[in-house]
Specification:
globular, mainly alpha, 296 residues
């Protein structure tokens, strides 16, 4: 069921443009705000316990339904798994965001291109320099592939719908309450949770980039820069994705300007293509494991 749920979800995501609006996380953001307000500013709740309590209700609801349907192993369990996975992927469609950026940039509409770039990178602002903007978009694609797709699928395989939703909600909390350096606070607890959940799937994502791009360059870049992340391994997940992904694409950290005004549209397309090759490789691996379990 896991394999078919993943295939159906990815297929539906590709053909249903309105899905991004339906899986908006606004409801959870409002719920988190209200929950934090009710918990108050007490230090007891402003940390891991507060994060746990905020996540408890939606995750418990999904877990109870998942357990209730597990015994059936029928259509209802499959439909529920697909619905939760569809909500957990994204919330925005990476392909649509990238194509929107490319179309706007090539048409000379920098305002729309920069708006699309913000959706890709997750930054509240975008670099003014076109070359820096192109670099930010490429890096954003490499990171977003893990945040929106691979990480969700990984935890769906491990824990089913509960795992997919847990990873998605951790991403929502991370984006809503960005870590600003304070210790022992709610934002730090969110960062730790997301860092732990992301540690293994982000490295599997880089392995996928290496296998579908330049393996030697990806591993070389990863190895050379890994020493700088040893002390901050949680925040280093993003650097792992960027370094390995740029290595797999065989580009230097500083991207050169091209005739497009500094944004290498060819490299943006190459990054997106490598992402989809990585997703396809992941699905193939899951399919092989599934078939092997059936045969045995």
């Amino acid at each position: 069921m896991v394999l078919f749920a993943i295939l159906f979800s990815l297929l539906i995501e590709r053909v249903w443009d309105a899905l991004a609006d339906l899986r908006s996380p606004v409801w959870f953001e409002r719920y988190a705000d209200r929950a934090r307000h009710r918990l108050g500013a007490d230090r007891l709740w402003d940390g891991p316990l507060g994060v746990f309590l905020i996540l408890l209700l939606p995750l418990l609801a999904v877990a109870l339904v998942q357990l209730a349907l597990a015994a059936m192993l029928g259509l209802l369990a499959f439909v529920f798994a697909v619905l939760v996975l569809l909500f957990s992927l994204g919330p925005r469609d990476l392909e649509s965001d990238v194509q929107r950026f490319l179309a706007a940039w090539e048409q000379g509409d920098q305002a729309q291109a920069r708006a699309a770039a913000r959706h890709i990178t997750g930054l509240s602002f975008e670099p003014a320099d076109p070359a820096a903007l192109g670099k930010a978009v490429v890096e954003g694609i490499l990171v977003a592939a893990h945040e929106r797709i691979v990480g969700v699928i990984f935890w769906f395989v491990i824990l089913g719908p509960l795992g997919a939703l847990l990873f998605r909600l951790s991403c929502v909390l991370k984006d809503k309450y960005p870590y600003a350096g304070e210790t022992g606070g709610f934002a730090q607890a969110v960062l730790v949770l997301h860092g732990v959940l992301s540690w293994l799937p982000c490295r599997l994502t880089v392995l996928g980039y290496a296998l579908t791009g330049s393996f030697g360059d990806a591993m070389h870049r990863w190895r050379d820069e890994a020493s700088g992340w040893a002390r901050d391994w949680l925040a280093g997940n993003r650097q792992v994705l960027v370094a390995g992904g740029l290595g797999a694409l065989q580009v230097e950290q500083e991207l050169s300007e091209e005739e497009t005004g500094g944004v290498s549209t060819q490299l943006v397309r190459a990054a997106l293509a490598m992402v989809w090759r990585t997703v396809l490789l992941l699905v193939v691996v899951i399919a092989v494991i599934t078939l092997a379990s059936w045969v045995s």
